[in-house]
């Protein structure tokens, strides 16, 4: 029993490290700063960045709210570690809880708290603006993301991520719910604080919630953000792209975790590419997009999915 | 043990050299350099906050007014960290009496990278900065003296002025900011994220060009005019030379006048592309940044050094690069393609349409000129219209420069210049610079220096529009509106 727990813990840490590191490499690969000069050193740059931050002296802003400031990065890291617990990277690699999907969505909420606390804790005006923007992200993604995942839950007749993956053994949900995947990815962009929806940490407010962080604390936040993106993409791969199953026509010629990793990175690359092709939007535009476009389309998708389930029984 | 520690340190140094983050402070001449630098080397990346950076890059000139902000930023720099200074030292360029500061007297500068930051030289300077930074080892640095905080009082709104009982906040943006080329401070009275009122604090890049021009000789005045706007040296120099030639009653030969027009057109086009690169960076629109930066760097190779403009004409020997100034046939077509891409980009429109609207009547009333006026007269006068006006103007300038080049005929490039001082009189010169019409009024009393000089600078005129363009917008839109004015703070402050 203890061995199983330890094995699960190390596997989870391994996935998180590989996932976060891969996201950091992909970010640099897609960045315009690398255009035309991509080389193998991009693979080492996240390590270089981590070493630089570990070596940097810690910094405290003047008159901070010490408790909020110090605990914010820890909350961020704890959130992603707990969320990773239910994301399956292969058979028997995750906790098979009946409410895994619900648990994952709810666990994204404390990340908002981490960013809001970070901004508030710096006791600065840019931090205050950033913390309010972080709160607006919660309003933007929560309902939209919830409706985007209902279709697969209905199709699998379960909220367990493992059951949802198992239900896609012969046909991935994206084949007959393509709109659902689009809605999930749009909502995911709100939830992972990436362009075009990264206003809480935007450069126009000098990094916003992260402006006063440096050294190890900044490293923890950056790592947590990278892992958050990876986990959200991985959850999307599990919900819509068949999880650890290979494509039905191809079959399982790669190990299950490798399929899962490939699909996760594909979605990460897609999200980063979308961020590169769009300008940064204000939080008011994000809210408008979420509530006036994503949510109504999600209702339509839900109705269509329900009808398909009743009529076709795929 | 000591050997192992040394080896470990060396290994960590080599590893951390793979990615360096810099925080840049532009003293007024770094607009083009800072637009190019992120694309020069993938090991160098800009940081949003000084706490995230291990390098503080200061681009000259550094004035008394800006020193406080630089010291404060250095204190915020992550340790270990370094200070790198780029550009021509202020005292060397403007003289000892220009109220400029030698940064080495106040901070431990690890590296000084020489080289001009004007359009024709910025490419090689950016390469030099990147190369120098890559090889510099970080160390803990020393403490910087505390800066004396600047006290500013901003009146808040009374309860009667507010619709609901909220608390206003004054947000200080700058003097280190990304909306203008050079240091500028905006004091925004905010109700949540809505800007209620804006005040401008400039003067961080003032070099007293007019005062110095009155104190120095006519020939030294040419250098000062060239440095009025470090991002548009040809415009300033041409305005001064034309006014001086008018005082003397000298006319430059036809060939020289055509070459001057070509150089001016290329400078305008280059400046517009560098501005668009910075604008796209502010919008965080990566899809446009790469293309804009590539075009800007390409146009910069065609730019003429301002030294080729001499009293009475043109001196080709002053251009050691020998560019030739022939515009490649595809150059303006590439800019046109970018213009078409931007004009049909709905996402770009979502971020810029209806932002910072300036009506045509108001623009004419305040004396706006250049792309700002063109955008107000020919289109909606918003940030999008100003961006498109600049891109269209860049394409037109390049095409026109090519047409002028084809019209070049052999002939003299310089008129004989009188040995005496200019006769008593006054002259006015107008030049269409990148930011608008640059006007110079020059007076002579027959002496060895001007008796009167006055620059009407378009950036100063457009800067005065900020308090009326910004209120009513959210913070990101307010910053977009200011950035769309293409302010060169060195030119605005003079």
Radius of gyration over C-alpha positions of chain B, nearest whole angstrom? 23 Å
Mean residue pLDDT of chain B = 89
Number of strands of chain B: 13
Helix content of chain B: 40-55%
Sheet with the most strands of chain B? Answer: 5 strands, parallel
Which ranges of chain A are low-confidence, i.e. pLDDT below 50, for 5 or more consecutive residues?
Answer: none
Total helical elements of chain A? 13
The percent range for strand residues of chain B is 5-15%
Structural class of chain A: mainly alpha
Distance from N terminus to C terminus of chain A (CA atoms, Å) equals 38 Å
Helix content of chain A: 55-70%
What are the segments of chain B in which pLDDT stays under 50 over at least 5 consecutive residues?
Answer: none
Largest sheet of chain A: none
Describe the structure in your own words:
Chain A has 314 residues and is mainly α. In chain A, 68% of the residues lie in helices and 0% in strands. Chain A is built from 13 helices and no strands. In chain A, helix 6 (125-148) packs parallel to helix 13 (283-312). Chain A is globular. The mean pLDDT of chain A is 90. Chain B has helices at 2-16, 31-36, 64-76, 90-94, 122-134, 209-215, 218-226, 233-248, 254-282, 286-300, 331-343, 346-352, 360-366, 370-378, 383-407, 458-463, 466-469, 475-483, 489-493; strands at 20-26, 44-46, 55-59, 82-86, 111-113, 169-173, 185-191, 194-201, 309-310, 313-314, 425-432, 437-444, 452-456. Chain B is an alpha/beta fold and 494 residues long. In chain B, helix 6 packs antiparallel against helix 7 (218-226) and helix 7 (218-226) packs antiparallel against helix 8 (233-248). Chain B is built from 19 helices and 13 strands. A 5-stranded parallel β-sheet of chain B has the order 2-1-3-4-5, sandwiched between helices. A 3-stranded antiparallel β-sheet of chain B has the order 6-7-8. In chain B, a hairpin with a 2-residue loop joins strand 7 (185-191) and strand 8 (194-201). Chain B starts with a helix and ends with a helix. The mean pLDDT of chain B is 89. The interface between A and B is large, with 56 and 49 residues.
């Amino acid at each position: 029993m203890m061995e199983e727990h330890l094995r699960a813990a190390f596997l989870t840490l391994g996935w998180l490290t590989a996932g976060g590191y891969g996201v950091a490499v992909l970010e640099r690969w897609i960045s315009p700063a690398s255009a035309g000069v991509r080389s193998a050193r991009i693979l080492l740059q996240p390590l270089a960045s981590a070493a630089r931050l570990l070596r940097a002296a810690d910094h405290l802003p003047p008159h901070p709210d010490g408790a909020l400031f110090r605990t914010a990065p820890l909350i961020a890291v704890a959130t992603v570690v707990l969320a990773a617990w239910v994301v399956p990277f292969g058979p028997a690699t995750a906790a098979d809880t009946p409410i895994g999907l619900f648990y994952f969505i709810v666990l994204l909420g404390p990340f908002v708290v981490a960013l809001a606390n970070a901004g508030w804790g710096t006791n600065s005006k840019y931090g205050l603006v950033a913390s309010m923007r972080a709160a607006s992200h919660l309003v933007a993604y929560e309902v939209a993301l919830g409706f985007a995942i209902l279709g697969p839950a209905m199709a699998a007749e379960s909220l367990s991520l493992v059951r949802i993956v198992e239900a896609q053994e012969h046909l991935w949900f994206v084949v007959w719910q393509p709109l659902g995947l689009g809605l999930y990815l749009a909502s995911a962009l709100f939830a992972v604080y990436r362009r075009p929806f990264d206003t809480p940490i935007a450069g126009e407010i000098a990094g916003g919630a992260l402006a006063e962080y440096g050294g190890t604390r900044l490293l923890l936040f950056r790592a947590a953000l990278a892992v958050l993106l990876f986990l959200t993409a991985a959850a999307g791969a599990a919900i819509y792209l068949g999880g650890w199953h290979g494509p039905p026509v191809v079959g399982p010629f790669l190990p299950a975790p490798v399929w899962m990793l490939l699909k996760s990175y594909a979605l990460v690359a897609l999200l980063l590419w979308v961020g590169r092709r769009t300008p940064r939007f204000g939080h008011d535009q994000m809210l408008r997009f979420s509530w006036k476009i994503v949510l109504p389309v999600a209702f339509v998708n839900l109705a269509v999915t329900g009808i398909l389930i009743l009529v076709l029984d795929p | 043990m000591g050997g192992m520690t040394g080896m470990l340190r060396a290994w960590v140094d080599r590893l951390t050299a793979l990615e360096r983050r810099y925080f840049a402070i532009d003293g007024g001449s770094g607009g083009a350099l800072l637009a190019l630098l992120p694309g020069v080397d993938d090991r160098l990346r800009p940081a949003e906050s000084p706490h995230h950076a291990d390098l503080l890059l200061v681009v000259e000139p550094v004035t008394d007014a800006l020193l406080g902000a630089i010291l404060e930023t250095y204190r915020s720099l992550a340790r270990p960290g370094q200070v790198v200074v780029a550009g021509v030292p202020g005292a060397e360029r403007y003289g000892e009496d220009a109220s400029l500061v030698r940064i080495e007297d106040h901070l431990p500068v690890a590296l000084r990278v020489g080289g001009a930051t004007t359009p024709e030289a910025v490419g090689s300077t950016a390469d030099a900065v990147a190369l120098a930074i890559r090889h510099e080892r970080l160390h803990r640095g020393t403490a910087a003296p505390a800066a004396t905080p600047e006290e500013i009082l901003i009146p808040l709104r009374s309860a009667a002025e507010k619709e609901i009982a909220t608390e206003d906040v004054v947000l200080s943006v700058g003097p280190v900011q990304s909306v203008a080329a050079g240091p500028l401070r905006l004091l925004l009275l905010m109700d949540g994220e809505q800007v209620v009122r804006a005040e401008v604090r400039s003067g961080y890049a003032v070099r007293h060009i007019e005062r110095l021009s009155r104190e120095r000789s006519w020939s030294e005045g040419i250098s000062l005019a060239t440095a009025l706007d470090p991002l548009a040296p040809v415009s300033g120099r041409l305005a001064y030379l034309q006014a001086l030639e008018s005082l003397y009653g000298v006319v430059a030969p036809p060939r020289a006048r055509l070459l001057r027009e070509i150089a001016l057109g290329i400078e305008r086009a280059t400046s517009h592309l560098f501005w668009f690169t910075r604008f796209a960076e502010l919008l965080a629109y990566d899809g446009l940044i790469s293309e804009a930066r590539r075009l800007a760097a390409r146009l910069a190779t065609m730019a003429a050094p301002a030294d080729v403009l001499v009293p009475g004409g043109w001196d080709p020997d002053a251009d050691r690069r020998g560019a030739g100034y022939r515009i490649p046939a595809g150059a303006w077509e590439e800019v046109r393609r970018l213009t078409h891409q931007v004009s049909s980009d709905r996402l770009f429109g979502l971020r810029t349409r209806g932002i910072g609207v300036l009506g045509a009547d108001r623009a004419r009333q305040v004396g706006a000129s250049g792309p700002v006026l063109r955008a107000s007269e020919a289109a909606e006068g918003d940030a999008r219209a100003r961006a498109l006006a600049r891109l269209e103007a860049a394409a037109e300038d390049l095409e026109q420069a090519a047409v002028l080049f084809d019209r070049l005929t052999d002939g003299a490039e310089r008129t004989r210049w009188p040995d005496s001082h200019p006769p008593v009189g006054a002259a006015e010169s107008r030049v269409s610079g990148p930011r608008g019409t640059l006007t110079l009024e020059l007076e002579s009393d027959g002496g060895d220096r001007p008796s009167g000089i006055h620059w009407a600078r378009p950036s100063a005129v457009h800067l005065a529009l900020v308090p009326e363009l910004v209120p009513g917008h959210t913070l990101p839109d307010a910053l977009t509106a200011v950035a769309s004015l293409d302010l060169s703070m060195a030119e605005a402050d003079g």
